[in-house]
Amino acid sequence: MKRKLITFLSILAIALGGLMTSSCDDVDPASEDITITPSESTLKIGESVDLTAAGGYSYTWSLANEDRGALSTRTGSTTTYTSHYEPEEDIYSQVVTVTSTIAPDYDDSSSSSNSTGSTGTGEAYVKHISSVVTVSPISGTVSAVGDKVTFTASGGSSFSWTLDATGSTAGSITPTTGATVVFTYENAVTTSATAKLTVVNENNQTYTVDIYLVVPPGTP
After folding, report:
1. Fold agreement (29-128, 134-213)
2. Cis before residue 217, ω within 30 degrees of 0?
């Protein structure tokens, strides 16, 4: 009876050991699902975004371009990225990478223990945009009543447009706010002139373009 009990206990111990080993071996190494939220951001110089990593166990952060921004911390599940970069054009110029590591799992009773650990990575992308307002095209020409010219501003999040006296007499713009406006030539000039169209962004930065008003053919 005692021998049968010892045999049963031995089999039970082996079975439980197998379950424990299987449990250790089945731990998701977190190398497949490391994520960063938000995964994409748009920043002007001096602006920041809070980044949060998930799907791993411990985290280390790094930047593809160290001279274009800074991280508030290099370890932990959260960090803050601050832009130090003023681009000439809007570009995705920064990749933030988080690396997740899992400490090795040592188990002297099992030869199949995870003794090397595992590593996974996730990425987030930062688009740096200019904080200096500009307008495209830099000028326009109208030569007949009804002609239109479209202008688009960049380097801000809100814009307001105004025409000088010459422009207001010769035509109008619609709308007067937003990134894009259209100037319409409505009242023919009798002498060629230049109108000024000015845009201002939320930081009170301004940019002025010229609209060349040509005397339409046949104008007395």
Report:
1. yes
2. no
SS3 state of residue 202: coil
Region for residue 80 given its phi and psi (left: phi exceeds 0; alpha: psi -120 to 50; beta: otherwise): beta
pLDDT score of 136 more than 90: yes
Paired with 147 in beta bridges are none
Q: Are strands 48-54 and 134-136 parallel, antiparallel or unpaired?
A: unpaired
Q: Where are the domains of the chain?
A: 29-128, 134-213
**Sign of the CA dihedral 184, 152, 202, 177?**
positive
pLDDT per position as a tens digit, 149-196: 999 998 888 999 999 999 999 999 999 999 999 999 999 999 999 999
pLDDT > 90 in the chain, percent: 60
- CATH architecture assigned to 29-128: Sandwich (2.60)
Task: Give the separation between CA 69 and CA 48, rounded to whole angstroms.
Answer: 9
pLDDT tens digits, residue range 8-42?
Answer: 445 444 444 444 333 333 334 444 589 999 999 99
The answer to whether 90 touches 134, Cβ cutoff 8 Å, is: no
Q: Among 150, 171, 145, 154, which Cα is nearest to 205's?
A: 154
CATH architecture of the domain with range 134-213 = Sandwich (2.60)
User: What radius of gyration do the chain's Cα atoms show?
Assistant: 32
Looking at the DSSP bridge assignments, the partners of residue 194 are 212
